Amino acid sequence: MIRVMLVDDQELVRTGFRMVLGAQPDIEVVGEAADGASAVEMLRTLEADVVLMDVRMPRMDGVEAARLICASPSSPKVLMLTTFDLDEYAFEAIKAGVSGFLLKDVPPPELISAIRSVNAGDAVIAPSTTRRLLDRVAVHLPVGEALRRQDDTLTAREREVLYHVALGLSNAEIAQQLRLAEATVKTHLGRILAKLSLRDRAQAVVYAYESGLVTPDRTQG
């Protein structure tokens, strides 16, 4: 059973999600909160596997709540509810550790699939979508000496794999481009995440943009 917590300041939205999820045999809504602060407080005693989190809420927004929740080693996965006109939140949300994004008007089958995927350890936002979001907020990305501190920790091959990840390619596509086995690409990606202390593929894309490895014009730095 996948335990889900709903966090949204609109009761009608929570009711809609609760009805959809409650009809699934493998999903249980175990809690609800109307703002980020309440969600963080509730999760101190409530066990959840996935948190469905709105971005804009009173008292504490979804990004800050996600940052606090994801800081715990045994934290639940966070799915951020967003709209394309809130892209300025995407960058900080990925850095905070969220496992993906869903539009607030997501069709029920996609919502259910996303929750199951995140619970299984996958990200529900395609790398290409992450890249498109980052392209739109690239002006806000910090650039500087501090962001290049860890460049030397990656091998040339790992940097090459990271570059292609940030361009939105799947492991299979990277394997074809670099003439490697797909399993080898997966191994390289795992080492990249470990060396850079990154949570998942989405955060790897953020790092690639931050470090200048990939720039908005899609050239290698």
From TrEMBL:
Domain HTH luxR-type: 147-212
SMART domains given in the database record: HTH_LUXR (SM00421), REC (SM00448)
InterPro entries given in the database record: CheY-like_superfamily, NreC/VraR/RcsB-like_REC, Sig_transdc_resp-reg_C-effctor, Sig_transdc_resp-reg_receiver, Tscrpt_reg_LuxR_C, WalR-like
Keyword Cell inner membrane attached: no
Protease found in the keyword field: no
Location of the Response regulatory domain: 3-119
Pfam short name (any one): Response_reg
An annotated GO BP: regulation of DNA-templated transcription
Alphabetized UniProt keyword annotations: DNA-binding, Phosphoprotein, Transcription, Transcription regulation
One MF term in the entry's GO annotations: DNA binding
Organism: Planotetraspora kaengkrachanensis
Name this protein carries in UniProt: DNA-binding response regulator
Signal peptide: none
Chain positions found as 4-aspartylphosphate: 54
Domain of life where this protein originates: Bacteria
